[in-house]
Fold these 2 entries.
Entry 1:
Amino acid sequence: MNNNFDVIIVGAGPGGYVAAIRSAQLGLKTACIESRKTLGGTCLNVGCIPSKSLLYASEMYYKVQKEFKNLGIEATGIKVNLSRMMGNKNKSVLTLTKGVEFLFKKNNISHLKGKGTILDNNTVTVIDDSDKKETYKTKNIIIATGSVPTSLPGIKIDEKVVVSSTGALSFDKNPKELIVIGGGYIGLELSSVWKRLGSNVTVIEYLDRIIPGMDKDISNEFLKILSKQGINFKLDCKVTGVNLVKDKAVVDITNNKTSKRERIEADKVLMAVGRKPNIGEDIIKLGIKLNNQKKIEVNEKFETSIKNIYAIGDVIDKGPMLAHKAEDEGIAAAEIIAGQAGHVNYNVIPVVIYTSPEVAMVGKNEDDLKKENIKYKIGKFPFLANSRAKVNSETEGFVKVIAEEKTDKVLGVALISSLAGTMIAELALAMEFGASAEDIARTCHAHPTHSEAVKEAAMAVDKRPIHF
Ligand code: NAI
């Protein structure tokens, strides 16, 4: 193989592999380095994809037990075969990671297997499993090394009793007692999985609300829904220690307001207090500029402080740590390297929590707008008044549209619905095109669909919903 490239990407997660495909499409001679055995990064191997497989399977189990009877379907002898459920998850992961491998071949991308180290802005080395080292020259480098789970001071993740999301996606039996530290995305999705499969789940959250960045109305409603499903919440509580006693964990917590202390025992503890950028020694040695959260600083062209070295995804100081954000940055960075005008609109990045019901948002929430002193109006519509949701017994949740007071321009939308993750795409598109609430209200929405609630919420901005 010729060891000279136009672009070498370090990391084959959703940011890196998409950047590689787009670079190759644009005629750049492209290589992508990955140390994991399979392509696809955290998302495909131990994140988005396996978690969605378990969320789907456990939701089906829950529904067949609790909801089918109302539909006139009587099922008996329903039980979980966890090893089969895990096998199905592993098969989905394998199929999708193989899919990326196929796309690499199709696009003539060199897949460099091993650990990559950036020596300078034109030189990268790769050490493979057998310690063989190869040196490559390149005109451009894209850092797409993603992120790793964080823990709390003094608490070690052993992936046996105290686990990260990786461990919690592979339990060989459902823990009787599961404590989840952190009421964010990972904490709530995995709480849902294990609660449905029979665990007693307690979520400990430091702040006084779950998903702190979320619209307050949605956060409050979401908490009610999850509590009704049987998940226990201890909000406003600080974990002061996690100790292993025999094969159990003893978790000490203190209430931030009352200072009341409590000690709870669990079979497993999931640490879900966030992730940190995966910054290698090479990045430190090169002196690539980091911000005070140890994220790589990039400009609007994804250029780092060193010429020809770009960075995208979870390692950079822009936007949320989300796979689809990284993908869009990968496309934009490749286009910029190829001399085009790549761009990511950070005001319109949808966020979805894949619980049941799902939660989704795009744009700003009320707190953001208050801080920015922007005057706004709100339209809300509950799924209780949506015919399709009613027919399907999916009446929990609502749509909330926030529009600028004077111009009626949509500034943000948040919703809770069984289909929120799919429905948010319409709103992201509307916002990309600068739509007003009136534009959405006057767009014909098919009947009977959950999406009619979006149109109704847009009409409610002008206080004229039809069905509420
Ligand atoms: P997160 O940032 O979403 O949530 C962490 C939670 O832990 C926050 O609510 C925070 O207040 C709480 N916390 C922090 N310190 C604590 C302490 N000492 N005690 C108790 N609670 C504490 O992080 P999470 O859930 O670990 O997810 C990591 C990343 O992965 C996120 O950036 C998220 O965007 C991404 N992700 C996205 C998903 C999706 O899009 N559906 C699914 C899973 C992960």
Entry 2:
Amino acid sequence: MCGISAVTGREDVVTILYESIRNLEYRGYDSCGLGVVSNGEVAVRKNTGGVEEVNKKEHLTHLRGTTGIAHTRWATHGRVTQANAHPHSSTDGRFSIVHNGIINNYEELRSDLKAQGAAFLSDTDTEVMAHLIAKSYEETGDVEKAFVAAIKHLEGSYAFCMVTPLAPGEIYCARLGSPLVLGAGKSVNFVASDVNAFLQHTRDALVMEDGEYAVVSPDAITVRKLADGSLVRRKPIRIEWDAETSKKGGYAHFMLKEIFEQPQTLRNALAATQEGVARMAGKIRAARHAYLMGVGTTHYVALAGQYFFSRLAGRHLPVVSSDEFVDLAVVDSQDLVMAVSQSGETFDTRRGIAFAKEKGASTAAIVNVMGSSLSMGVDEVIMQGSGPEICVVSTKAALAQMVILQRIALESALQEGRMDKAAYARAHQVLQAFPEQVSAVLNERSGFVRNLADRTAGYHNWLVLGRGIYYPIALEAALKLKEVTYLHVEGMPAGFLKHGTLALVDQNLMSWFLVPPTEEKELNQHTISALEEVKARGGPVIGLMFEDDQRAKRLLDFAIELPKVDPLVAPFLQLIVAQLFSYFTALKLGRSIDKPRNLAKSVTVG
Ligand code: M6R
């Protein structure tokens, strides 16, 4: 969603502020702006476009000031226009704010405020807050009281930062339902949607919770409860992420960098707490129903987890997409709900967890972002340790989540006695050897994949097909290809094809098959049968297959041959190559790879 940032220091903070929204740009990138307290006012500059583009138009970096706010937007209310970009200010210009979230009752507030003389300049829900603060200030004559009183009128979700020349070195911020993290530096302090905004300056972060507000100055951070003003004492956490990881480091795009980082991502996922994995397996075993829940890519990750559990541990786990969870899941105190989330802030997934808690169920999560709402708000968490994922399109985080789910399934199989210790140890050897195999494939096959992507990028309609565990991989491959290329791509079980979708097949529809290894005889043969059905109807076929599969090779019009790996990790290898293929197709089509149109990294609204 939107990225918000605020900085206050003893010296000019404009460069820091500007860099902070560049680092948050993956949260939203249709417009942006910056406001600094300067000469008794808040100087605001904003416009439509990405951060660099707006800087060219508006010279954001020419502003000067020691306290300021900044925003990068993903539009929810109001079109993408200069007026709708943040910051928004009160009519007298004394209070300027940036916001992430949605104010549900903004229409009534707006008409009340208009009736009282407030001049609205935008169509956003956000602007009401600036006018509300100004109005409360008229009544209280106190900035903090005005800020708190204004917030209390709001219904919805928010993370706000506000600055005013009436308290020139201070940032006022509050959180309800949208993420907000405070960064504690030396004579400079930070507020932001996530730690990537300030990681270059400090790794000490204080995560705000819902219903709290804070007053931040260069030397002090005071957090209080909105309800009664009581002081909140919370120690900062140390963010163990390397700021360098959030830079492109010579790669043309973050997506490519993050795909190539995956050998290390795998090592980190394999190093993630064994005790945590064993505890999670125990919790799943103890639960009557253990639900897996995610949305978008993490829904497909959860589906992959479902296959691991069925096949390895003999346990069927219900999987429900987070956005449907409340309407579909039936949970009570005997159940466990386990969420999967890169950001740990996704609205739908947090809503599902809140619902599970309400019903008395235990909760758990696999999460990447340290200090995120989900990581702090569930009974049991496994931090996947993938480091910052900047590209809006998820790659390395999804792979790590699948590997962790496979580890939990293996552990469950061991605990259940379905797998003996020798088989369990063998599986772990396979996993340990995998990062090297991934490095080799990335280094040796990328050129070939690129070449093929160039040749097939002209197809506008695609099916991605897989069976068994390759079905969720096909769904994820389809999502990758569609979100980064804007092509029409549908993922589907290969066996489902003949039940209707076959009607679409002709020479213009490209079918992309994920062919399982030949060791998985039935899966392999059934997939190839579906492939033949497409060929028989004149449809072009591209396939990801393993080297010894002569039958698949004969049938495919375009084949990406992969070195043989153990069937346990074969779906992961196909996923990685599918990511690479999607990247190169998008490159050929000239797409905005790291920030595809209309998307945002972290969807914190419902
Ligand atoms: O941060 P989360 O993992 O909870 O995000 C879930 C989805 O919004 C996310 O996976 C989305 O589908 C991405 N665009 C996938 O590339």
